[in-house]
Write a structure and sequence with these properties.
Number of helices: 6
Strand order of the largest sheet: 1-3-6-5
Order of helices and strands: HEEEEEEEEEEHHHHH
Structural class: alpha+beta
Helix content: 40-55%
Radius of gyration: 27 Å
Strand content: 15-25%
Distance between the termini: 49 Å
Length: 291
């Protein structure tokens, strides 16, 4: 029996990999050239078999040599076989290279891992604002050797270093914990915003298919609480959270995954899971603030 299960997962992974090879994201700048610091739009799109689940880069992705200003996702367009996702990224750059290139990844998500597909690299020309010096600028060149005395005040340097070290140590003792807590709160906030964004996106694209939504919810709670939610069954989760609303919501989702579907139960179930995620996030924030 175990061999049959292993063979099934191997065949499924191969199936996903083969499909991934036949699709390719398309990324293109919507301008040929820009000046340094000027915004530019970059369009990313992907057409793929509708049974796959894909995720586009978000605000946490590094866009070097560009910096992300904002992004806009468009609703998924589907027919009987294929779906198409697209997004617009508003970027800017402060690098001085004349030609700058960008390629972005698209993630194909399955139950156990993900496959990354990269768009073809597109380039954009950075226009040089100052190309020649005006005639009024006269440059005088003096190649005569001028001896500069090399003097370094070691006592002052040593005294300044000791004072700086004392200030840093005292500052860390006084404010170190506060700085660490602020950093933790910042990471919690960014992670929570990212979760809510992905959760709402999945509600739009997979409303009647609750399994990806449930998986995202479990992974988020696992990161927040360090509890292995992704390995827990519904019974184990309800025993851990001890809330009747969570038990009802999970049973409704399980019914739509494994049993006869009843989508009328999903709206309240999804709202309950989101409320639980927000509540858990709030508890973690309070622990950091008062811990």
């Amino acid at each position: 029996m175990r061999r049959k299960i292993s063979l099934f997962f191997c065949l499924w992974a191969s199936f996903i990999f083969v499909k991934a090879q036949k699709i390719a994201p398309k990324g293109v700048f919507l301008a040929d050239s820009i000046q340094i610091g000027e915004p530019v739009l970059y369009a990313l799109s992907l057409t793929y078999p509708k049974e796959l689940e894909v995720v586009f880069p978000d605000s946490l992705h590094p866009y070097f040599p560009f910096e992300l200003i904002k992004k806009q996702y468009f609703p998924t367009q589907s027919d009987s076989v294929f779906s198409k996702d697209s997004a617009l990224y508003q970027l800017t750059t402060f690098e001085i290279d004349t030609v700058q290139r960008l390629t972005l990844p698209v993630y194909i998500i399955n139950e156990y891992d993900s496959t990354i597909l990269y768009s073809t690299a597109d380039s954009i020309v950075i226009k040089q604002v100052v190309t020649t010096l005006p005639d009024s600028v006269v440059m005088k060149i003096n190649t005569s050797y001028v001896e500069v005395p090399l003097a370094f005040n070691y006592p002052y340097w040593l005294a300044g270093s000791v004072i700086l070290l004392i200030v840093l140590v005292v500052g860390w003792l006084i404010f170190g914990k506060s700085i660490i807590n602020q950093f933790k709160l910042y990471r919690l906030k960014k992670r929570h915003q990212n979760f809510l964004q992905q959760y709402k996106q999945l509600l739009t694209t997979h409303y009647s298919e609750p399994e990806p939504i449930l998986t995202l919810w479990k992974k988020y709670l696992e990161k927040l609480t360090r509890q292995p939610y992704t390995t827990f069954t519904t019974k184990e989760i309800t025993a851990l959270l001890t809330q009747q609303e969570i038990e009802t919501a999970l049973h409704a989702i399980d019914r739509n995954i494994y049993g006869p579907k009843d989508e009328s139960l999903l709206k309240d179930a999804y709202a309950t899971l989101e409320q639980q995620a927000v509540s858990t996030y709030t508890n973690q924030v309070n622990k950091v603030k008062h811990g």
